[in-house]
Amino acid sequence: MLNSVIFGAPGSGKGTQSERIVEKYGITHISTGDVLRAEIKKGTELGKTAQGYIDQGQLIPDRLMIDILGNVLDGIKESKGVIFDGFPRTITQAEALEKLLAERGQEVAVMIDLEVPEEVLITRLINRGKQTGRADDNEETIKKRLQVYHTQTYPLIEWYKEKQKHHVVKGYGELDDILADICSIIDTTRK
Ligand code: AMP
Fold first, then answer.
1. Any idea what the CATH number is for the domain that residue 108 is in?
2. What is the pTM of this model?
3. Residues with Cβ within 6 A of ligand 1?
4. 56 φ, ψ to 5°?
5. How far is the CA of 33 from the centre of ligand 1 (A)?
């Protein structure tokens, strides 16, 4: 069972690399952003609540987000492991994830931190907004999301460093090179 957290600022390529990791290792991908966008699409109460925060570039409150993740984990029957993409985003969420996994006799094995310069992040997000029409990929909301990342999410790097689970990967350049770096970390951890 290999559980990993793929970490990084908005636009760092977490989703793109997660898809490739899933293909290679056959593990389960949980993207909390995707879960929320699916709720918005379905027009559920949860989706309506989430939309307000997402449009403002703010995080969904921890309590709600942790409940959502617990439900997603309950829905997974058999899995070779999970790649957590976009969760945790706060220390409170990281502590909750530890607890949720411990209750299932599991843990996070590695945290992979995709490091990308801020100007590259902004360019990528603006381009994605143009291509996909994703509403929070506009310049104003991007700025807010990056601020939220720095204040609320970035401290997780230290948290995972203390647990000796933090691994940095250069998150720009050739997609295949990035994947190769990620896989070498995963392969070493699995041994
Ligand atoms: P993402 O697709 O991961 O960039 O997430 C898009 C938006 O969904 C974020 O800007 C947040 O508003 C919300 N979101 C996703 N994951 C979380 C989380 N773990 N905690 C709080 N908010 C989240």
1. 3.40.50.300
2. 0.97
3. 10, 32-33, 36, 53-54, 58-60, 65, 86-87, 89, 93, 136, 145
4. -90, 0
5. 5
